[in-house]
Design brief:
CATH topology of the largest domain: Rossmann fold
Strand content: 15-25%
Number of domains: 2
Number of strands: 12
CATH class of the largest domain: Alpha Beta
Structural class: alpha/beta
Distance between the termini: 11 Å
Strand order of the largest sheet: 3-2-1-4-5-6-7
Largest sheet: 7 strands, parallel
Order of helices and strands: EHEEHEHEEHEEHHEHEHEHEHHH
Length: 312
């Protein structure tokens, strides 16, 4: 099957393009948000993904177009393809984000469409978005297994937040000082250097750096489900996490501590950073849970089913 999608979310796209299909991602000269092209900090399977400039897309045939942002659905896909997604070419809209705003106003941009399939990445998203009559399902995340790398040799916590300063309360950036008083923290992610952290690393290097820290902290208030959390669990890291959105579904009690009380989480950080044995035991439980629920094979099988249904 030949699939067109925009390279929007690096970790999710990395898992998606591990399927048994041919993938095309648009590329622009500046590699901006609408034309990132091939990954440069993630490892993609060699030969299965091509990048094409927008003016080349009209000459290409696609079995399915995978949309991920409202402007792709509303005008970008049609402008670049010369075909209307859902009408002239089969289409799937993937919703990565939790909705914003008042509960009664959480209307999805793909609501009431009978010409495409809406796929949510978490059950929380599916519950909170109002999609009207649009056919919808949940395909939970899958992770390319980085292997059990955990050493926990550094008695510190690791936290991964992209654009931590700009996103502020959404990502719990304002809570880092309180957690940092309980245990030393190392911040990783895009623009992390602005807050004294480590700037964007290639995924493999990031995983190595995370796994050397004793605990993974997930302070994010409002997101569908952070892939860095699932990656940390795959690495074998114990987890201390705010119990918001989908987190309580992803992190079993044996894998760490989940709560909406910052004092409870700070105490857990302090205890786990000080206790290497408990941390390693909880990390093993985290990895087992992540492999069972968020393994790559299940993810790709679910996507194969959805793609086949839409493509006919």
């Amino acid at each position: 099957m030949r699939i067109l999608l925009w390279h929007v979310h690096g970790a999710w796209t990395t898992a998606f393009v591990h399927g048994a299909h041919d993938y095309v991602v648009p590329v622009l000269p500046d590699r901006g948000p609408d034309g990132v092209g091939l990954a440069r900090t993630y490892a993609w399977p060699e030969g299965s993904v091509r990048e094409l400039a927008p003016d080349a897309l009209r000459e290409e045939e696609f079995d399915v177009v995978v949309l991920q942002r409202p402007h792709e659905l509303e005008h970008l896909a049609e402008a670049w393809l010369g075909r209307r997604p859902g009408r002239d070419v089969p289409a799937i809209y993937v919703e990565h984000n939790a909705p914003q705003g008042r509960i009664a106003e959480m209307r999805h941009p793909a609501a009431d469409r009978d010409d495409l399939l809406l796929v949510h990445v978490t059950h929380f998203n599916a519950l909170f978005w109002d999609a009207g009559s649009t056919p919808a399902r949940v395909i939970e995340h899958g992770i390319v297994d980085p292997g059990h790398r955990y050493s926990g040799e550094l008695a510190r916590g690791a936290v991964v937040i992209n654009e931590a300063r700009r996103r502020a309360r959404v990502t719990g950036t304002d809570l880092l000082e309180r957690f940092g008083a309980a245990a030393p923290l190392d911040l990783f992610g895009i623009d992390a250097a602005a807050l004294g952290g480590v700037a964007d690393l290639p995924q493999d290097e990031l995983h190595d750096a995370m796994a050397r820290r004793r605990v993974y902290l997930h302070p994010i208030r409002w997101t569908s489900l952070g892939l860095s959390l699932l990656e940390a669990m795959h690495l074998g890291m114990p987890v201390v996490a705010l119990g918001t959105t989908e987190v309580h579904e992803a992190v079993p009690a044996a894998a760490g501590v989940v709560s909406t009380r910052v004092d409870v989480l700070a105490d857990a950080m302090r205890r786990l950073v000080a206790d290497a044995e408990e941390s390693a035991e909880r990390g093993r439980a985290a990895r087992a849970a992540a492999l069972e629920r968020y393994g790559l094979e299940r993810f790709l099988e679910d996507w194969d089913t959805a793609l086949a249904e839409v493509a006919g």
